[in-house]
Design a protein that fits this description.
Order of helices and strands: HEHEHHEEHEHEHEHEEEEEEEEHEEEEE
Radius of gyration: 24 Å
Strand order of the largest sheet: 5-4-3-2-6-7-12-8
Number of strands: 20
Shape: elongated
Bound molecules: S-adenosylmethionine
Strand content: 15-25%
Length: about 350
């Protein structure tokens, strides 16, 4: 009989989680948060210091940011992890170097060029300092393992690009341990039942990078689909990547200027929920006091002081049976519907909506 854990592990490894973030994308986003890193302990889990540009970014900027400590853990499931480790560890016979999970802890970066912004990100050089350590982990480096959780508890801010397939669990763990975070995810996660309530409670927000342009990631050679090659390395574009954080992001304090006046003709009402549909979001009428459904990507613009989130169509939509353009009666799913103006008597199903309303001015 197949060992369930082994099978699960294998299945997890088959998920396409190996997307390595470019240094330029990290620099672009991180430049907005410099003040929050002074005297802080940063953890980059799900990261291989030899490959990760997150580790590189913090090593390069360790002194300039005034970090107290940089920690990184490497998962043994990564196809590239641990390839250089035999330099440091006595591996057991027959152990593939790829199977080593380890941690690195940096508390000192020698200021070689004397200006606080050393270009030193070479792990091997960093480890020449007695204050910096690299050690194999007992387990596989899973962010959920007890030893990785112990590191998480020490950390002030977690910064990484976690495995897409485990995003829900990853965020839940950060929330459980009450950690500041700055991580990359997919905009599809806005609607997850574990993530959406965090937006509602203002415990998560999107970062600065405009997600409409997509982000480029290095991927392993074994992945068939890619966008282009860069120095022989495959690069993929993920159109819907964005940054998620609970650090302050100034755009979420900006008031959205609403200039349109409400008229019943311009804003259809849902068939299966008592709210009006506003699409695109920049047509939010300034004088409508009730509930309004806007595309879920509005969360990237949300100013929680200006708007209250009521819920999402996934949770609010009432069941409905209606007539659709195909001509048959179909049961409505957890979506909002509006009358289909091109097919009188029929209904049109809408993409997921977030229902908001203006907060009352004090
Ligand atoms: C999206 S990649 C990002 C890698 C790196 N943080 C970067 O951006 O360059 C996610 C990484 O998490 C690793 N990973 C997958 N499952 C994991 C787990 N359960 N615990 C820790 N890391 C895991 C993958 O092997 C992969 O290298």
């Amino acid at each position: 009989m197949a060992n369930t854990n082994t099978a699960l592990h294998a299945a997890n490894r088959n998920k396409k989680d190996e997307f390595y973030t470019q240094l330029s994308d990290i620099e672009k986003e991180l430049s907005h948060y410099r003040e929050y890193f002074k005297d802080k302990i940063v953890l980059c889990n799900c990261d291989d210091p030899y490959e990760s540009n997150f580790f590189k970014y913090f090593a390069l900027n360790f002194n300039a940011l005034g970090l107290k400590k940089l920690m990184a853990t490497c998962y043994d499931g990564s196809p590239i992890s641990g390839l250089e480790l035999p330099l440091f560890f006595e591996l057991e016979e027959n152990t593939s170097p790829k199977k080593v999970a380890y941690k690195v802890e940096i508390t000192e970066i020698p200021d070689l060029d004397g200006n606080g912004a050393t270009d030193l990100s070479d792990v091997q050089l960093l480890l020449q300092s007695d204050n910096n350590i690299m050690q194999p982990l007992k387990g596989n480096g899973d962010f959920r393992s007890a030893e990785c959780i112990e590191l998480l508890k020490q950390a002030d801010i977690v910064v990484t690009n976690p495995p897409f397939s485990l995003f829900r669990e990853y965020v839940a763990q950060l929330v459980k341990y009450d950690k500041k975070f700055l991580i990359i995810g997919n905009t599809g996660a806005f609607s997850y039942k574990e993530i959406f309530p965090l937006f509602k409670d203002n415990k998560i927000r999107t970062g600065y990078t405009n997600f409409n342009v997509g982000m480029f990631f290095y991927i392993p050679d074994s992945y068939e689909q890619y966008h282009h090659l860069e120095n022989g390395r495959k690069v993929a574009r993920v159109a819907s990547s964005c940054w998620y954080t609970n650090l302050p992001v100034s755009k979420h304090n900006e008031e959205l200027i609403c200039i349109k006046h409400y008229t019943p003709e311009d804003y259809p009402r849902y068939d299966n929920y008592d709210a009006i549909d506003v699409c695109p979001y920049n047509e939010i009428p300034y004088d409508y006091e009730g509930e309004m459904g806007v595309p879920i990507t509005f969360l990237d613009k949300l100013n929680p002081e200006q708007f209250e989130i009521v819920g999402s169509s996934l949770e609010l939509a009432n069941p409905m049976v209606g007539k659709f353009p195909e001509g048959t009666f179909v049961k409505g799913g957890p979506s909002f519907y509006i009358p289909d103006t091109e097919n009188p008597g029929m209904h049109k199903r809408l993409y997921n909506r977030v229902v908001i309303k203006f907060r009352k001015k004090q």
